[in-house]
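$ run holo --ligand "adenosine-2'-5'-diphosphate" --emit tokens
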Amino acid sequence: MTETAVTEQQTNVPKVPTLPNAETITDVKHWTDRLFSFRVTRPASLRFRSGEFVMIGLMGDNGKPLLRAYSIASPSWDEELEFYSIKVPDGPLTSKLQHIQVGDQIILRPKPVGTLVHDALLPGKRLWFFATGTGFAPFASLLREPQTYEDYDEVVITHTCREVGELAYGAQLIEDIKNDELLHELIGPDFHKKIRYYPTTTREESPKMGRITDLMRSGEVFADLGIDPINPESDRAMVCGNLAFNLEIKELLEGYGLEEGANSAPKQYVVEKAFVD
Ligand code: A2P
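-- output --
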């Protein structure tokens, strides 16, 4: 124990973080052997827009911070921050991060950025969230953001994963949203009826199988949901998945006549790469 720590304990001074930008873990949930989510204290000064990401990490063995971009999965009004992560066995950060426990500290640089924000889209009627794997994270934030329901009549969230277990975080979140009293107070009594959840798997049997891109090309997704195909007048989209997926969805959306927007020039869709180790 260091001299400082002894002094702190004797005088009941709260523990001073030993890391720069340190935040404390308040909850950890393991969803599969490859996926986990965790919550941390929120820096008092941190303001962000739902859908943005920050750099988080741990101190590396060389004494330098090891940071990666992580979408904030909690909404902008939440008093804590939530993150959803993959566990890569030999990943420099996630091989260590997957072992964090309540009370541990992580480094969090309070500089939020990103394109998956409402400001980057023009007004529309139906909002599509297209995710693969941990690309669900920014949508976990936006699905709990009042503006999502103020701005749109309908919100379609598609999530494509290899296996059924990988859908659990998203499925549970949507179930929790339906029963969340605070959200109903914040947004309105029936807001959750605007959510259309469309999960699909590609490598394990489930009620809906196939890549969302193929289901769009065949028209199956629109038939299943009983809605018209995507068009630039009414539909807006946010995309977050692996690189190949993002490129394919981009091409499809452009084919429907949607154009890519940015913070500085809002248009009909926006894309961000899901961040992995
Ligand atoms: P598939 O199993 O057919 O590769 P990953 O874990 O590799 O990031 O993939 C997550 C999910 O995204 C998987 O279900 C995978 O399907 C799907 N996927 C990967 N590439 C594409 C793509 N180009 N278009 C649509 N879905 C994709």
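-- notes --
Residues 179 and 192 are 9 Å apart (CA to CA).
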